[in-house]
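dumping the sequnces here before i forget
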Amino acid sequence: AQSVTQPDIHITVSEGASLELRCNYSYGATPYLFWYVQSPGQGLQLLLKYFSGDTLVQGIKGFEAEFKRSQSSFNLRKPSVHWSDAAEYFCAVGNTGNQFYFGTGTSLTVIP
Amino acid sequence: DAGITQSPRHKVTETGTPVTLRCHQTENHRYMYWYRQDPGHGLRLIHYSYGVKDTDKGEVSDGYSVSRSKTEDFLLTLESATSSQTSVYFCAISDNRGNSPLHFGNGTRLTVT
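..and the predicted 3d for all of it:
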């Protein structure tokens, strides 16, 4: 069975500091991996995705994520956080049957 | 942004009443999904559809039914709403490619009193 774990429920960072959000997945085959961001009252927006190839993927808004098969991880990073990055972030895993499983999310607070 | 419209955006209803939420897409995508979002649970799949009249259950399907009579519309029905179904409901779509991501609507906030 597939599952996604986001160990950090809530993270607070200072504006301009670096950010890393953790994501671990469970899936028997090569996974399709995604990060989404949700601003209050909005739907989820795709930040980036990994299917195959280069394990470091670039996304929108300056985010990147690295796939590490040995650790079953797909952590999201940003070198310098902006106040507008405050939101909830979701990691998801998909399979070849077009089924998707989400983590419980990490809420990011950015302090000035 | 993907053309996904959810209606209504907000609804308050009483326990025991039927409720139908609508999702309409203009992308001609094959797959459509209904998720519910609750604090501490993330997004949980209720039902999904892989074509017209083809649907299947997700992990939290009890108390919900769905119908898809046209490619563009996917309806979620709560036959007899309960307070535990108070939630934010999201529709999502995906095309036929196995590695296609989900694209989400803006959600429907349902309150059952």
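The interface with chain B takes residues 6, 32, 34, 36, 41-46, 49, 51, 90, 92, 94-105 of chain A (CB under 8 Å).
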